[in-house]
Design a protein that fits this description.
mainly alpha, 7 helices, about 60% helix, globular, Xre-like_HTH
Length: about 130
């Protein structure tokens, strides 16, 4: 069997700008502190973070794009669940009695630093709205 080289394509090329612009809009809506924004993005170096924030463009790794994708999914699910935009945007900050959160806010869970926690919150919200 002959091994063929796998073409090295970069599917993430060109997504950095739109992803970062969306993220920073979301961060404003959710009233996230700088430390929270950095944690949700996977703790990029401070200089990188401020460059992203200033230019709202840049090359993002798969992990960062995955994180932003989950955050946008969380935002969308909240907008569907809560017709009042203010209620949707503050939900993350409120204590939640679900076993998943144990009386803490969803944001606290999301700030663990693990991308898996973003996935769990996204999955929880999708289940709440009857999504898949």
């Amino acid at each position: 069997m002959t091994a063929y080289p796998v073409p090295r394509t970069e599917p993430t090329k060109g997504l950095g700008g739109p992803a970062l612009r969306s993220f920073f809009k979301l961060a404003d809506l959710w009233k996230l502190r700088i430390s929270e924004q950095r944690k949700l993005l996977g703790d990029p170096p401070e200089s990188t973070f401020y460059k992203w924030k200033r230019h709202q463009d840049g090359v993002l790794g798969r992990d960062t794009l995955e994180r932003i994708s989950y955050l946008l999914g969380i935002y969308k699910a909240l907008q569907i669940l809560f017709p009042n935009p203010e209620q949707a945007d503050t939900w993350l900050h409120r204590p939640n009695q679900s076993m998943l959160f144990g009386g803490h806010s969803a944001l606290e869970r999301m700030l663990s630093g693990n991308v898996a926690d973003l996935y769990v919150v996204r999955q929880y919200l999708d289940a709440q709205r009857g999504g898949h």
